[in-house]
């Protein structure tokens, strides 16, 4: 009897029930096989004519798999690494190993849900929701009555602020029979073609170790959590925000562990508006996860969760196509937009403030279908998470959990980059002093709502 333990979205030793779940009486007669499958379509496919993942994101993921393999090998646990269409590859492996059971993390995205649903037709599939704050009974929200507004969701959950506690770090269990590394390697032939893409990556999402070090540094060493609420709207820097997102998105950091660490900090050091606000943002993440489970693939429709489902491809005029291209290439001529996009293109990350502005600009100022922006973010973001990305884009477009959100880019530039330092750092070719560096280039069409704010630009520094 063989049980496959799918570690996609669960490549970590801390707070990982999937590694413990073979420790029941029944498992003592069972062989356990740890598996991950790199989804070929998600990393090498296209959507709306755009690649679905950048090389940087692929490298981050390959590094995470390699680090996980090493960590498991210390316990003499092998990791079978597959590459291809997940249901097909897992099915092939299960047939070869005569597996009858599969255990996996409860998915959020529609595609992962479809994969497990298809495996369920042949195998006994058990899922454990290890990346949600409200993942275990009795906390699991009822999807049919799940509020569609974040405020209502927060008000419903916050009075108790109950969160599923993290479990202890994995230790080898007597009676567990894992397939060892030498045996596992025999099934990794397809995956070995990806070696050509591997490059060491130091991103927090690329290993459990980096992620836990970042958490310790941000919360305990720097105590930067104490000023989170005041600094979180900055555009760049090391400690303005947590930078937990990539590790949470890949699953090498447990959100429940984060939550526990914040509570410990509040009990031992300080509880203030900032410590509360970090939990508040984690609740946003949580909200989108449950929203995705509720509406599933409707999130990819033109009107997302509002109105008729329409999966027809986004249509663009030639002019809009040029606008989209210049937005992606960070050459719109609007310095605040281009600076943020250049940061994204070079690092795979962007602040939340930057994301809101570039999204609003693409949708509301350039009139481009929001799904194209979401698809480009999917390609570039190292913290790409299906629910947080598509949910936030739909939110700004007004097709998700709110009405339209339009930002005045020049006003925002003045508020959050008043001296123009961020823009000059990202676009060194611009040398104008003070906030006047935010002046759009000649030829940029100026929306009426920018005029008052353009009049305030000055070469003086404050
Ligand atoms: P912090 O400010 O330190 O927040 C802590 C954590 O809370 C984050 O790591 C994240 O897990 C969660 N969080 C914070 N803000 C949000 C939010 N608005 N929605 C959901 N979760 C949130 N976040 C992603 O993780 N992946 C994405 O693909 C993604 N795409 C986005 C697209 C757009 C258009 C916008 C406006 C926002 C997007 N976000 C996404 C949300 C947010 O911008 C990032 O989570 C945040 O900037 C990551 O930096 P941080 O870890 O320092 O966040």
Features:
alpha/beta, 462 residues, 3 domains, DNA Cyclobutane Dipyrimidine Photolyase, subunit A, domain 3, six-stranded parallel sheet, Rossmann fold, two-stranded antiparallel ribbon, globular, binds flavin-adenine dinucleotide
CATH architecture grouping of the largest domain: Orthogonal Bundle
Share of β-strand residues: 5-15%
Q: Name the ligand types.
A: flavin-adenine dinucleotide
Provide the CATH top-level class of the largest domain: Mainly Alpha
**Elements, N to C (H/E):** EHEHEEHEHEHEHEHHHHHHHHHHHHHH
CATH homolog superfamily of the largest domain? DNA Cyclobutane Dipyrimidine Photolyase, subunit A, domain 3
The pLDDT mean sits at: 94
Number of domains: 3
Low-pLDDT runs:
none
| Number of separate helices | 20
Distance between the termini: 70 Å
Going by helix content, strand content and strand pairing, the class is alpha/beta
CA gyration radius, whole angstroms: 23 Å
Name the shape in a single word: globular
How many β-strands, per DSSP?
8
Largest sheet: 6 strands, parallel
Helix coverage percent: 40-55%
């Amino acid at each position: 009897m063989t049980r496959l333990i799918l570690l996609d979205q669960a490549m970590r030793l801390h707070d990982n029930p999937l590694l413990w779940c073979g420790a029941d009486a029944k498992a003592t007669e069972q062989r356990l096989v740890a598996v991950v499958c790199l989804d070929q379509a998600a990393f090498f496919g296209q959507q709306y004519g755009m690649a679905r993942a950048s090389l940087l994101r692929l490298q981050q993921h390959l590094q995470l798999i390699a680090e996980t393999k090493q960590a498991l090998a210390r316990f003499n646990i092998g990791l079978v690494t597959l590459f291809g269409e997940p249901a097909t590859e897992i099915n092939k492996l299960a047939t070869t190993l005569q597996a009858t059971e599969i255990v996996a993390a409860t998915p959020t995205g529609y595609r992962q849900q479809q994969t497990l649903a298809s495996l369920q037709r042949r195998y006994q599939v058990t899922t454990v929701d290890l990346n949600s704050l409200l993942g275990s009974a009795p906390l699991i929200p009822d999807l049919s009555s799940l509020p569609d507004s974040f405020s209502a969701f927060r008000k419903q959950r916050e009075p108790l602020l109950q969160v599923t506690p993290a479990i202890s770090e994995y230790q080898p269990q007597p009676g567990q029979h894992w397939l060892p590394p030498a045996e596992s390697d025999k099934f990794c032939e397809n995956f070995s073609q990806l070696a050509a893409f591997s490059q060491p990556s130091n991103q927090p999402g690329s290993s459990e170790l980096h992620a836990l070090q970042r958490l310790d540094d941000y919360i305990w060493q720097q105590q930067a959590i104490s000023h989170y609420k005041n600094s979180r709207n900055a555009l760049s820097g090391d400690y303005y925000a947590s930078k937990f997102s990539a590790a949470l998105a890949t699953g090498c950091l447990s959100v429940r562990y984060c939550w526990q660490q914040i509570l410990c900090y509040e009990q031992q050091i300080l509880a203030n508006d900032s410590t509360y606000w970090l939990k508040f943002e984690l609740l946003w993440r949580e909200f989108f996860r449950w929203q995705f489970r509720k509406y599933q693939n409707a999130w990819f429709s033109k009107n997302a969760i509002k109105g008729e489902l329409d999966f027809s491809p986004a249509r663009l005029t030639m002019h809009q196509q040029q606008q989209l291209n210049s937005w992606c290439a960070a050459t719109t001529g609007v310095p605040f937009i281009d600076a943020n996009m250049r940061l994204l293109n070079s690092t795979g990350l962007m602040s939340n403030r930057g994301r809101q502005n570039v999204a609003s600009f693409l949708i509301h100022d350039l009139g481009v279908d929001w799904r194209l922006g979401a698809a480009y973010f999917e390609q570039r973001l190292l913290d790409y998470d299906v629910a947080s990305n598509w949910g936030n884009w739909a939110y700004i477009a007004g097709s998700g959990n709110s009405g339209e959100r339009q930002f005045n880019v020049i006003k925002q530039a003045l508020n959050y980059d008043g001296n123009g330092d961020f823009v000059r750092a990202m676009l060194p070719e611009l040398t104008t002093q003070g906030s006047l560096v935010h002046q759009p280039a000649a030829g940029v069409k100026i929306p009426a709502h920018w005029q008052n704010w353009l009049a305030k630009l000055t070469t003086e520094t404050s």
